[in-house]
Write a structure and sequence with these properties.
- The protein is an alpha+beta fold.
- It has one domain.
- The protein has helices at 14-21, 45-55, 59-69, 80-84; strands spanning 4-6, 27-29, 37-40.
- A 3-stranded antiparallel beta sheet has the order 1-3-2, with no helix packed on it.
- The radius of gyration is 13 Å and the shape is elongated.
Length: 86
Amino acid sequence: MANKGVAPVDTSTAVGQFRVDVGDTDYKALVPAETGFGDFQYFSDLELQSALDATGGVPRMRVWRSCTANLPEYWPSKHKTFRQTI
């Protein structure tokens, strides 16, 4: 299943900023290809928007909820220090 999102990441949007916050910026082309969109490694834009909506857009809270609710099984080991700073 594809994790469809705006590609490259648009950091002028809340979803784009959140994607950078959680370190989900790597993507590949969708199949079939769609201009301006990619298949991200962990989350779709819709999932990120849902997390933003659930936390009222509070930056630390949205990252914390994502880390604790979704990422333990997916989060790469290189991000362990990030989780310790929350």
